[in-house]
Write a structure and sequence with these properties.
The protein is mostly beta strands. The chain is 0% helix and 59% strand.
Length: 150
Amino acid sequence: MRQPDMALTNKKISTAIDGLFNGFCPQSLYKFQDGTFWLQIDSKMLIHHLVEPAVEILELEEGYFMKVAGLDKIVQVKQLDDVIESNIRGNFSGWSGKTAYTLTNGQTWQQVKFQIKHAAKYMPGVLIYQSSHGPIMHVADTSVAVRRIK
């Protein structure tokens, strides 16, 4: 996909990332300080660490794009409305294949795609959102496909 022409901007939303920004990665979920969530839907990759950078959401002919202050690249995004925010009840030790975690909101979610990732956090924040391949749980800088079991 070509880089969109910034002159085609119809609408602009200015806000900031809520917390750390670690760069662009396909299917990354970004929480903004205005309470909205935006999912990266293109394949651009860029590692860049910033704390609460200013961002603009630009509405162009091709869709919505996110511009992070100080970076030259923009990425295509879409807004998500039904994001679940909670915390893991107790310890999070990572993913081992069929791992299940109960959240402080009472829901229990189980990993459905095999992936091993070690992490150690106590009651970390969790974001669960719907992707084109089903629900995704993001916790402690890891993301896996999940299904709700309770």
